[in-house]
Amino acid sequence: MADHEVPVLVVGGSLVGLSTSLLLAARGVPHMLVEQHRGTAIHPRAASFHQGTMEIFRSVGMQEAVDAAAEQEFAQNGAIIAVESLSGRELQYFYRSYNDGVEGLSPTSRLFITQVGLEPLLRDRARDLGAEHRFATELVSFEQDDTGVTSVIRSRDRGAERTVRSEYLVAADGAHSAVRERLGIDMVGRGSFADCVTIYFKADVRDMLGDRNLSVVYVNHPELLGFFRFSIAADSGFLAVFATIGPDGSRDKSVGENISAARCAELVRTALGAGPEFAVEIDNVQRWSAAAASAARFQDRRVFLAGDAAHVMPPTGGFGGNTGIADAHNLAWKLAMVHSGAADARLLDTYDAERRPVCHLTVEQAYTRYVLRVDSSLPKDDLMDPLDDASIELGSVCRSAGVVDPPAVEESSLEDLRSPTGRPGIRAPHLSLERDGASISTHDLFGDGFVLLAGSDGRAWCDAAASVAASRGVPLKAHCVAAAGPLVDKEDRFTEVYGTGPGGAVVVRPDGVIGWRTSAPADDPSGTIEEVMTRLLFR
């Protein structure tokens, strides 16, 4: 007999685990989260968050809180630049400002906030929504069978062991995932290619920064390779060091071995372009491995891998944390639909099919950026060409049975956000609409259940959706988007951008992905909608 019974056990309470918890709680799924550490992050990692991630936070009412917290930590919308040293020669601007060219693609903006600032917000909001979190608690063991997962957890303070019976387990327990190892799931890819350190320090760099707003500063110095981020007050920051370079040009990629505080201060001064008298105080040093790999599978029956447990990538591009939160977003709504009885458990099998190819592409794109921006000495075998950042962040394609008529494999793996197609399997395009005199995004309509959107001549689709939802108990809402009415298409772009024509319709999944589309009216709209929802819910 289990001491606790919950629908879902989440293992890991850092960024991805807390995001999973928040998204489950927002959808009314009871669950327990266990985390071996006593609290949230104490070091400011994963500071870059993309528009897709901010759309996820917006969907659960968190955007304003995250925006406000971010403003306390960093001057936003700064440049991403490569320099020889902070006070030395500027080599290249990757972005003059972080949101250049993406302003109209989303109702949100890219921003910088550390896990120190973000994780408590996620934790507190999840708890407000009913989540149960147990920090200082570790997973001892787990066994799965045909009906669930039996896990043993242990309190680090009391040493007491408890048994938890759950229908599913989500492993968000990091790059060295014990869950993944116990399942015997291999990591495949390029492996580890540098033993790195992140040096957290205090130093007054205001004069070196001058009037420059620099969000990320890559350092390509004759003596080291790395990157800086600085606090909003420019009195502290961190330097991630990938490699040091000897007088003969040889590269030492084992920076983390036996590194002293004095050596750390020396590296910081070198990267700043400062002399030996410049005051640098070392707060902490974290050793980590730069690697690029993905799990061979993201699901083992009732256990799912998410975040670093499923994929690891170098920080170039800032994709890591964002990719993990996207995992949580893809999985949470599916768990919610299955838990409520709205969908069959086969829906969960689409998690691996949809996320693993996307994550593999993202890992390779992060590696490409590492080779091109940081270390050109690394192997370039099968090196992907760099793809558009915005398309990686927002334009991934879901190919699975969870999409009706998804794009063929030979079609592009990414959507060009600047020329959206509205095809099934992609994120629904952002459009600015007007409702009750207020401006909203199409994305403000998504999140709770499925949503049918139709154009000005699509009233029959909307009526049919309402009828099917009522008669079949399907979680489906419907909206007509037109020049006049409850939802006003101010720019008159809906039918073009979504590819419906005036008489067609789309069904958007709870994660904002288009699940089905037609560009023509139907003789039997109710029958068509019922068939579509049967397929999307695996009924």
What report would you give on this structure?
50% of the residues are buried. The protein contains 13 helices and 26 strands. It has 539 residues and is of the alpha+beta class. Strands 4, 5, 11, 12, 13, 14, 15, 16 and 19 form a nine-stranded mixed β-sheet that branches. The chain has helices at residues 15-26, 51-59, 63-73, 115-128, 178-183, 206-209, 261-272, 320-340, 350-373, 389-394, 459-472, 494-497, 525-536; strands spanning 4-11, 31-35, 48-49, 79-83, 90-95, 111-112, 132-135, 137-144, 149-155, 161-171, 187-202, 214-221, 224-230, 236-245, 251-252, 281-295, 299-300, 303-305, 311-312, 432-435, 438-441, 450-454, 476-482, 487-489, 505-508, 514-518.
Briefly characterize the structure:
By secondary structure, the protein is an alpha+beta fold. The protein has 13 helices and 26 strands. The strands form four sheets. Strands 4, 5, 11, 12, 13, 14, 15, 16 and 19 form a nine-stranded mixed beta sheet that branches. Strands 1, 2, 7, 8, 9, 10, 17 and 18 form an eight-stranded mixed beta sheet that branches. Strands 21-20-24-23-22-25-26 form a seven-stranded mixed beta sheet.
Specify the overall morphology: globular
Distance between the termini: 32 Å
Task: Quickly give the structural class.
Answer: alpha+beta
Tell me the major beta sheet. 9 strands, mixed
- Helix content estimate: 25-40%
Count the DSSP helices.
13
Radius of gyration in whole Å, from Cα? 24 Å
What is the typical, i.e. mean, pLDDT?
Answer: 95
**How much strand?**
25-35%
- In total, the number of strands is 26
